[in-house]
Amino acid sequence: MDKSELEAQLLENPDQWVRREIAKNKNTSSKVLQMLAYDKLKWVRLEVARNPNAPATALEYLAADEDNEICREVAFNHNTPVKVLEILATHENIKIRQAVAFNFINPNPNTPVALLEQLATDENFEVYWHVLYNPKTPVSLLFEALAKHKQDDGVRHALASNPSTPTTILDELANCENEGWAILQEIADNPNTSLATLQELATNEENESSVREYAIFNPNLITISLLEQLATHEDWEIRRSVAANPNIPETLFQQLANDEVEEVRSHALAIRVRNSQDII
Q1: Any alpha helices (H) in 166-261, and if so which ranges?
Q2: At how many degrees (to 10) do helices 236-244 and 262-279 cross?
Q3: What letter would DSSP give residue 218?
């Protein structure tokens, strides 16, 4: 039995779980996925919509599916053509429009800037939030969001998390009075956060420990004297965070690798092993 005959038998298999597993398999051919896009069972079509090998024609067909969950997965799929994304961006279902704006797990690189600008005017504010999380969103829209909606928690969360958010915005957010720890943690983790802000977040004893830890192992924290100071902090979780910073000198690494707390020692060694693997 050749491959085409086997595929034909599998496609006609009455067991829905067999067809679903075929649709889920990343090695399934685009030809088979195209045929499974017409399956009568929702769960099979849903797996086709999620499959990275799904052909554009299958995704275009599934974009008109009566099931909103399937349409949402089509919006997430990186093979979905721009013309289909443009249609889904006007879908009546809010979650589908959110999916076009941004996928938190695996952002779709195909979403054009013009479509993000369109979705930024969506009547639903949660769609607007998703646009602000997208790294492709124009900086002008991020500044506009800060100017118009600075008091909105969702907007600040998005701006703090977006890796394209300019340093000036992050600095302003970090200086908001009584800012919540979750937003401060996102700022501490952002690759654009300034050294001055990271130093403040890392050394402010009033901050949650998670905020301080994220700031300490941010690669932008390059002040060796500060890292040396924090490496002797009485809180072992702070010392453990120093071990994760890629800028620590060898002498400081050796100090943490011999720390009195086992968690600090093991973390330092684990980071060293991981970094050496990355180099290889």
Answers
A1: 167-174, 181-189, 195-203, 209-216, 224-230, 236-244, 250-257
A2: 10
A3: -
Cα dihedral 60, 61, 62, 64 sign: positive
| pTM assigned to the model | 0.85
Q: Between the CA of residue 69 and those of 28, 83, 149, what are the distances in Å?
A: 22, 19, 30
pLDDT in tens, the chain (280 residues): 455 555 555 566 667 888 999 999 999 999 999 999 999 999 999 999 999 999 999 999 999 999 999 999 999 999 999 999 999 999 999 999 999 999 999 999 999 999 999 999 999 999 999 999 999 999 999 999 999 999 999 999 999 999 999 999 999 999 988 789 999 999 999 999 999 999 999 999 889 989 999 999 899 988 999 999 999 999 999 999 998 888 888 999 899 999 999 999 998 888 777 666 554 4
Secondary structure (DSSP) of 34-103: HHHTT-SSHHHHHHHHH-TT--HHHHHHHTT-S-HHHHHHHHH-TT--HHHHHHHTT-S-HHHHHHHH--
* CA gap 216, 151 in Å, rounded: 27
